[in-house]
Amino acid sequence: MASLTAITALGGITACDKTIGGIRIVEIADCCLASLAMRRGKAASFRKAAKKALGTDLPAPGQWTGNDTHGVIWMGPDQFLVEAETGTADLAGGLAASFGGAASITDQSDAWVRFDITGKDVPAMLERLSAADTRLMQGGAAVRTPIHHMLCVLVRRDAYISFTIYGPRASAQSLHHALTATAASL
User: Fold this and answer.
1) Minimal CA–CA distance to 102: which of 53, 146, 152?
2) pTM of the full predicted structure?
3) Crossing angle, helix 43-54 and helix 91-99, to 10 degrees?
């Protein structure tokens, strides 16, 4: 049997963690993701299952909600991206069992790369990369926006200096380069 070693989206054995000036950029390699979309005519059972399975209310448009076990990002009308720690056994399968025929669910864990970015100058850095008005984003805000020619999801985790960027995993190196180069230019 072949001996395989898991690697991160950036190609490392361990997640990349860089601090440039006062900005810390951390690759988060231990996050499970699943898309969650309500099926037509199933609104009542969908919302009931969501409250029970996720332990949190579904976010309003342009928002993120979360608790100790799940984060939920609004992606479009009746469409959400669910986050959980890697230790969560089969996130998509567990959601499918909870939602039954009320939702369509697909595993997205290997489709995205996640970078958590902290520091007082993060809004200044992000305004050079994106059209999103990061200075006015409140804690819990989420927006889909191009970052360095890649469609990404930008989440403001709190009201101060903590952001998450989800980008296409296939472009992880390009996105990381854009983030580190912009941080260095401040």
Assistant:
1) 53
2) 0.92
3) 130
Kindly tell me if the per-residue pLDDT of 88 is higher than 70.
Answer: no
Structure-token pair, residue 110: 């290997």
Does residue 116 contact residue 71 with C-beta atoms inside 8 Å?
no
Q: Is residue 1 part of a domain?
A: no
- Phi then psi for residue 82, to 5 deg, are -100, 130
What pLDDT does 163 receive? 96
Mean of the pLDDT values across residues 11-31?
95
Rounded to whole angstroms, how far apart are CA atoms 72 and 47?
13
CA dihedral 163, 169, 35, 134 (to 10 degrees): 20
Of 107, 127, 144, which one is at a domain's C-terminal end?
Answer: 107
Q: Mean pLDDT for the chain?
A: 93
CATH number of the domain bearing residue 35: 3.30.70.1520
CA dist list (Å): 96 to 40, 44, 65, 74: 16, 16, 20, 18
CA distance 80 to 53: 14
Provide the strand spans (E) within the chain: 17-20, 23-28, 31-38, 64-66, 71-76, 79-85, 103-107, 112-118, 142-147, 150-156, 162-168
